[in-house]
Amino acid sequence: MSDPVDPFEQNHRHNTRRQFFGRAATGIGAAALAALLGQESVFAGPDDRPVLADGVHFPAKAKRVIYLMMSGGPSHIDMFDYKPGLYQRAGEQLPDSVRQGQRLTTMTSGQKQLPVLPPHKPFKAWGKSQMMLSTMIPYTGAIADDICLVKSMNTEAINHAPAATFFLTGSQIPGRPSMGAWLSYGLGSMNNELPAFVVMSSRDQESSCGQLLYDYYWGSGFIASQHQGVRFRGNGDPVLYLSNPSGMPRQLRRKMLNRLNELNEQRLDEYGDPEIEARIKQYEMAYRMQTSIPGLTDISDEPEHALEMYGPDVHRKGSFARNCLMARRLAEQDVRFIQLMHVGWDQHANVPTQLEIQCKDTDQPAAALVADLKQRGLLDDTLVIFGGEFGRTTFAQGDTRGQKYGRDHHGRAFSLWMAGGGLKRGFQYGETCPYGWNIVDKGVHVHDWQATVLRLLGIDHQLLTFRYQGRRFRLTDVHGHSVEDLIA
Fold first, then answer.
1. Helical H segments across 111-249, by residue range
2. Cα(437)–Cα(410) distance, rounded to whole angstroms?
């Protein structure tokens, strides 16, 4: 009988020369550079742009990001991109000259008629900027002079998961680090008691058309797992296993972690696996969160007028309103990247029955978050983003003679808004055709948008990279440019 195989020895045997030197360069080189910079930030790239004293390439306008990701694809036609001509064209076929052969999803590719569907509710001009927005989102209208509305977003993705993955990781294929993980890796944490990257999720109250939320939407991909998002739950303990088991005093927990860390450090010395080091840091963060999280999630100290800003749903744990309030509290504690995932915008067959309800669920809390940050002096260095993975079609999906119709996915042109963080305010950028179907001026690709977000945080998107399998990866993949016209 042959001797048993040692799995660690077998692993070393299978390491190629390229893997050995690649890991050595990543571990030793990155650690050395981080030590020289005096922080966790690691930047690399094709040129010699200097890194500033605080680890960035430009003077940063924003310190933190709150990303309100509306999963499902909010309809730009109904909410943000005013096209008055659609009312006169209601029921007419979308011209081939407008569609230009664009592929449709399987849900409407066989639909024989593509009738133009005008906005569900009227639009009106809001604020001094006279920004045209739907009357379904009056609270957003009230902050129109504080937001920057981009009406010329575009993406190649046509289905939800690839499109959301593209926005959040820079690739339609899962496996890349998410935006929050990139910022944790590049800029580090501003608060040692809380994660640099926090995620919360919610859904429409009717549970009408929710999308699946995958862990890789806030994953760390191939960079150290300590940079992945920490998901806060709406019910029970905000973070799983955060509380000590019954009979386990905090002092005993500390002693247990000390011994566990000693074992992990021994294994780290033996094998040099960076994931062991990441696990040590995660255990320590979990221990510190035991004291920082309970006070953070207890909103009993919030004045009544602050709660009223976010609407009545703020009292329901796990709601979008409650998560927006939590986002403000996290921003006050200098959490670097706060990602709120809200599902319910996939309105293929229920625009007349659900869209307005969904707007009511999200409009007031999102606007309250911006107003709350502004009155607390936090909006100037906090970037707030509201948008989905794509928009919706100009034509109707289904039979408009009844109540069961909607709009299909549309990535060629759609809208999102941002506020604070060094952006122009009361500003609109880009233009689409009279049908809201094609971009006719100043298109903004997903990678352009990502480059702009990084630029506001002081980062040259070409220089924040991670070497993996012989290639330097970055959030914007191989293209994209910062849209300087959006920056104040």
1. 138-142, 160-169, 179-187
2. 8
